[in-house]
Amino acid sequence: MTRSTQQSVRETFEAALGVIRQASVGILTLLDIKVAEGKDPQWFSQQLEQARLNAGSWAMVGRKLNLDDVEMSRFTLRLRHLQQVAPQYESGQPVSQNQLFAALRFVACLERLRENQPKLDYSTELPVTNEAAQQQAMQQLRALELTLKGLVTQAWPDQQQLINHLKQRTGADKVRRWLKLGKQGDVLSGMLFSELALLVIDKKEYAQHYERIFNSADSLTLFVEPRKTLQTFLDDIRVIRNAAVQQQPLTTVQMTTLDAFCSAIAGPVQEAFAKGRVNVNPQALMALETAKLSAFFDDAAQKNRAVGGDIFDLRDTIERPGAQRQDIQRDPRQLAATVLWGVTGVAFIAVALGALYLASDQVNPPQTAQSVNQAASESADAPIPVQINETPRDKLSRRGIRWDESHFRAAIDRNEADVVQLFLDGGMNWQVAWTEQALAARQDEALSLLLRHRAQMNEVKPCRRMIATMGHALAQGDVFTPMRKQFLKSFCITPGVIKRQKYDLDQAVLREQANPGAQTKKWAAIQRAIYQEIKSGA
Q1: 406-450: per-residue pLDDT in tens?
Q2: Contact yes or no for 391/426 (Cβ under 8 A)
Q3: Which residue stretches of 117-214 are H helix?
Q4: How far is the C-alpha of 224 from the C-alpha of 232, rounded, in Å?
Q5: Fewest beta carbons less than 10 Å away: which of 69, 311, 368, 430?
């Protein structure tokens, strides 16, 4: 888990750009756009937008690429993110870690796209200088998991207290499963990788135990919030880890991405260990015999088979037990009565349909062949009837878009106002947290629709997170747009929020006075602007 030098970072980044240029030619050709050669990510994004206009929607583009709506959204978002962090690049320029991270994440998307669409045959190979890269990747996966376990164990050194805490946060059923699958006296050993990672990146757990380790890390700034960057990296690693657990050789893209992400995550922990703030040493966890490494992954494979695999995305927070759907237990006699009434109903309907059929034969005698041909001719000339009472859900279904939150969020991220409108008209609720990407990309059309349906916003206490995210974005050079101001005035003008923001402003001013400088001055100005905005809207 060592950090790469600037030269190797630049070489890997340029190799990733080469893959993107090559892949863009094949993808655009499949989308009926002829190009001679691939160019930078910004050009590729513009060409994809033209393909969307030609096809009529992103859903139609996704069909040609064999991507569903969620996968298509992931593809366009990662390309847009790469375009933002690396708008222009000339060979030999310095490359930041974030530029490399964004490029690797998009190349991983290109690799999955090629697997989904057999008509695409571009190469995604990246240079790997280490001959034992496969072995090192397996060691990194193990070391990362043990690092996460070590951090959780340090936060909860008493096993029984940890078990009680997990029962309260996740429910007794999950804890029983973990104890059954794990080693005796070690509840963490029974968890899937995503479940263990969630104990670190859960908002509440992170703020209480791990924020001081990761929040000052320069390696976790790909997104505004370090916790969000950590969550994203761990979820990408989960996908790579699944391939390793299934004994599939990792691709060069997966090994390069894993090396970069593991270094970014382990770096802050290693630094905290050197300063004596944690007792977890990631570097020491890399050393392991081959036999023990094989046993580790055999155990991981057994756990995955027992629960059907680690297939779910890494969530933002731990799901409360009360939020999970519970199976309804029925009395056998009640179930028998239900079945009996159902059979009776079916029999009644059959008798009624038979009576209607006999009656229709008497009123309308069977047609002759001539009358049948005449009716067919008339029906061919008649216009196709339109379904008058088509609901918004029906319209979405007809367009191949499922009625769920992930597709709603994808439409917001892509600024597809017509799709967003259908979800809102159908009664789908939304959360302010879903608008972070759209606010950063200034997707005002979709955001305006959400504000017009603000009664359907059901996120509880969205302001602390929204103000924190907005503040970090402004600190990194984003603009305090009118839409951001409108969101603050729409949801953050309660007395409690205003009071808390006034306190944050006072603290920022005190820090500026105690340590004058460009950064403290800038942060105080941001806190003042946010406070004045919500104060004026109250």
Answers
A1: 889 888 988 888 999 999 988 899 998 888 888 888 888 999 999
A2: yes
A3: 133-155, 159-170, 172-181, 193-201, 203-205, 211-214
A4: 12
A5: 368
- pTM exceeds 0.70: no
Contact by Cβ (8 Å): 97, 85 = no
247: phi then psi, degrees, rounded to nearest 5: 60, 35
* Spatial CA neighbour of 219 closest among 262, 278, 256: 262
pLDDT-derived band of residue 140, with 50, 70 and 90 as boundaries? very high
Q: How many Å apart are CA 454 and CA 463, to the nearest integer?
A: 14
Q: Rounded distance, CA 398 to CA 392, Å?
A: 10
Measure the CA dihedral 519/525/526/528, to 10°.
150
Instruction: List, in order, residues 6 or more apart from 409 with CB less than 8 Å away.
Output: 73, 434
What SS3 class is residue 165?
helix
Would you state the pLDDT for residue 462? 87
Going from the C-alpha of 367 to that of each of 213, 354, 364, the distances in angstroms are: 83, 20, 8
Chain centroid to Cα 142, Å, comes to 24
**Are 410 and 69 a contacting pair, CB within 8 Å?**
yes
Do 491 and 465 form a contact (C-beta atoms < 8 A)? Answer: no
The separation between the first and the last C-alpha atoms of the chain, rounded to the nearest angstrom, is 50
In this predicted model, what pLDDT tens digit does every residue of 226-282 receive, in sequence order?
999 999 999 999 999 999 998 899 999 999 999 999 999 999 999 999 999 999 999
Separation between Cα atoms, residue 31 and residue 55, nearest integer Å? 8
The DSSP secondary structure of 32-97, one letter per residue, reads: T---SS---HHHHHHHHHHHHHHHSSHHHHHHHHT--HHHHHHHHHHHHHHHHH-S---TT----H
Residue 489 to residues 182, 187, 453, 493: CA-CA distances in angstroms?
49, 45, 15, 6
Q: Cα separation of 401 and 393, whole Å?
A: 9
